[in-house]
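It is worth pausing here to work through a concrete case rather than discussing structure prediction in the abstract. The textbook approach is simple: state the sequence, then state the predicted structure, then interpret. We follow exactly that order.
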Amino acid sequence: MSPVVRVRQLTKWYGPRRAVADVSFAVEPGEIIGLLGPNGSGKSTIFRILTGYLAPSSGTVGVAGFDVVRDAFAVRREVGYVPEDAPLYEHMRVVEFLRFMAQIKGLRGRAIGRAVDAAAARLDLDRVMNLTAGKLSRGFRQRVSIAQALLTEPKVLILDEPTSGLDPHQVIAVRDLIRSLAGHQSVLLASHVLSEIEKIASRVMILLDGTLLTADARATTSTDVRLRARITGSESEVRTSLAAISGVRAVSVEQVAAAERHYLIDAEPGDRVRGEITRTLVAKGLELTELVEVRADLEQRFLDLTRRRSGKAAA
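Step two, the predicted structure:
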């Protein structure tokens, strides 16, 4: 099956400033993809190009088989877009707003009512359909914004900071809603909140200063592994002993509890290094009570990638 979104060597300049630099990625049908990066990293620029609001300076962008430059109107029919702080018409009732948006999107006659009813049911909006947008809570405003994006059953749904400004209950509701879309639409959502991306997305892309550091942060692995060791004894002796072992890259102290310390050891993968660590510490009379591999979480991988990028830029 062909990707529903394909981006190749996308670059966007705003005058002398390059906002997006040579970005390439693909999105498969039904995937939920998180685009993670700090404010100003280029997330919203990429989304505006995908939706046809901006033209790329160079590179190609395809959505559902259409080019965003040559086939801009066709792309807009295949994409539902919810920008950050999506504006609603405050004086309009929700049902009026959704019918109005359905007409703008090209629906006519009975198709308008069917689309509005389906979106309202999907987003649990029945109790607020006759309220004006100005009377809605932040959570329901976000639901209405997503509902209008789904009116034409687009193949791709783009959400820019969908949980920004929501209270914890509203965040959970929107998160569950996005998960429910998996398999029906391909969803791209941007956020600078690692925990939200990690709970929603099946794949996470990391963007920094307009550069895509990885198209799958969860699959990003080093050739080394990280081990956690609980060792009792002199810290200087522990460090000296570990540093002498072939395959140990780095040693740091994670936690101190009386005479016992928790160390993080970056080392070559495999049983040889682990066995050597155990034998060396026992031979030195140092008490080893735990030696386990630590799986890097999204936060650690984000920090590793951004630090590596910063180090290359400094060099």
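Step three, interpretation. The domain at 225-296 is CATH 3.30.70.1340 (Alpha-Beta Plaits). Residues 298-314 form the longest helix (17 residues).
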